């Protein structure tokens, strides 16, 4: 390597670290844009920062600075000094869009979530959940005590599942089953998509009462009142019987291995002959893929999600071997693991009774 190449490599390395250090600032810039409804106020054409500021109730100069930061992040475009339009990526911050990510951004930049991250080093040292120490209770109990935060979490999870809901119904042979229970199914977005695509299938959304809060609206919107029921309960105590397919998306990663085994065991206990458990989660490689870059790749996000599980809820992202082990302990055998195309980084993990 020449001295010129060495200097270029050193500069690139430095730039990477600096960009990562500014990551939390970029996230809070998104949060401000959502809270001020910037994308809605700019609208579908070009608009001046002065006009946006007037509608948002802010001073013009700070609004201009915010809009320029959003432009630099790729969410807006500045056509002339002080005049902006929304990019396709920025449009996802419009709360009125069906594919909006406003609730998702709001939740993952929420001070309640971010505060535990300030103690990541403590969690790494001890293995303990930082959230529990900071707030004096676990994450889900905290949600139950704060209805507004719980509603925001439910909305964020609904937005987060939308991409998977568009793909999953066509990525798995649901036609060989008659009834599916979505364990921890929240507002029913994922199961509604599956039932819409498979008219011969009926279903159950199983979750806590707070998790099901918005589910009646979802089922009504999809016209599924006759084919899908809602059942409140605790999957650490039992899972309802009567289905031949048990679906879980982004559930097991919230919990420790012991807790994951408990949930899976309860599914195994009610699984009929020929029944299956379908787990939809990221599957980490046994070692980090060298192609994974540090900033915004799906691979990097999955590892950051793993740390989020550590500091906020105590769960973890898992490798195939990890999934095989927790399934084995629950009396299940993993028969197939398939990456979910167009919904990265998720995979379909299919398991049957031993």
TrEMBL record:
It comes from Streptomyces chartreusis. This is Methyltransferase. GO terms for molecular function: O-methyltransferase activity; protein dimerization activity. The keyword Zinc-finger does not apply. SUPFAM superfamilies: S-adenosyl-L-methionine-dependent methyltransferases (SSF53335), Winged helix' DNA-binding domain (SSF46785). Keywords: Methyltransferase, S-adenosyl-L-methionine, Transferase. The active site is at residue 253. Pfam families: Dimerisation (PF08100), Methyltransf_2 (PF00891).
